[in-house]
Write a structure and sequence with these properties.
The chain has one domain: Creatine Amidinohydrolase. It is an alpha+beta fold. The chain contains six helices and 15 strands. Helix 1 runs antiparallel to helix 2 and helix 3 packs antiparallel against helix 4. The chain starts with 6 loop residues before the first helix and ends with a helix. The strands form four sheets. The protein has a five-stranded antiparallel β-sheet with strand order 8-7-9-14-15.
Length: 264
């Protein structure tokens, strides 16, 4: 069942989304070779709690951390730990904030400065696919229109679209209806109506679409061990427009490597 949000609820979600965006920005300052991924997790949690929120992911179904940190061939749900970033890595940071009874959720994949050109293109095209999906997330369309926009764009480059994991509604619960796959057919799926709030999150692999789950029960990797990219925004659907609730602004201000200009 899809739970439609009121303007009052959206106001709270906007506030939480700003805390989330700024937490991402604090993490962005630290991403460089030699940093332990556990340090990123500590910084994010402290920032979120200092600003009146709590980490949505921590203890969610037993997840042990505030951030999902997924490096290279890890698609999503990687654990922070003692791993130290290397100059050729890419790292996806997925974060959620619970604030005044509502969740917000967003993700961004960073290349370090030694990332090769082919992987930079994967990131650039995955980022572009997110906004192609957002363009279709409007009242009167269907979820399949969002899905098709993402799938048709990235598959034109030979990339694999992960099937097992999808975008989702967000609100009082971290995961609500509707599900928002990154693959599908135009005109299919639930109708998009004003009041919907959902996360669109392309998870795109440089090789096969197939993934495997590690024994920890969380970590998802590409089955061919090739890199995967992940970007996510939350949107609110209105009568005549769709608002992007989350922001990557603070990431782009604070991350030292201006990679998107390098890959264009």
């Amino acid at each position: 069942m899809v739970y439609l949000k009121t303007e009052e609820e959206l106001s709270i979600i906007r506030e939480g989304s700003q805390i989330l965006g700024k937490a991402h920005g604090e993490v962005a300052k630290l991403i460089k070779p030699g940093i332990k991924t556990s340090k990123l997790d500590v910084v994010a949690e402290e920032f979120i709690r200092d600003h009146g929120g709590s980490p949505s992911f921590k203890n969610y179904n037993g997840f042990p951390a505030s951030l999902c940190i997924s490096v290279n061939d890890v698609v999503v749900h990687g654990f922070p730990g003692n791993y130290e970033l290397r100059e050729t890595d890419i790292i996806s940071i997925d974060c959620g904030v619970y604030y005044k009874g509502y969740h917000s959720d967003s993700a961004y994949t960073y290349p370090l400065e030694g990332t090769n050109a082919e992987t930079l293109l994967l990131l650039e095209r995955t980022y572009e696919s997110l906004f192609r999906g957002i363009d279709q997330a409007k009242a009167g369309n269907r979820i399949g229109d969002v899905s098709f926009a993402i799938q048709s764009y990235v598959e034109s480059f030979g990339y694999g679209v992960v099937r097992e994991l999808v975008g989702h509604g967000v609100g009082k619960k971290l995961h609500e209806d509707p599900e928002v796959p990154n693959y599908g057919k135009r005109g299919k799926g639930p109708k998009i109506v004003p009041g919907m709030v959902f996360a669109i999150e392309p998870m795109i692999n440089r090789g096969t679409k197939n993934v495997v789950q590690e024994r920890d029960g969380w970590t998802i990797r590409t089955s061919d061990r090739r890199p995967s990219a992940h970007f996510e925004h939350m949107v609110a659907v209105k009568e005549n427009e769709t608002e992007v609730l989350t922001t990557h602004k603070y990431i782009e201000e604070n991350y030292s490597y201006k990679w998107r200009s390098k890959s264009q």
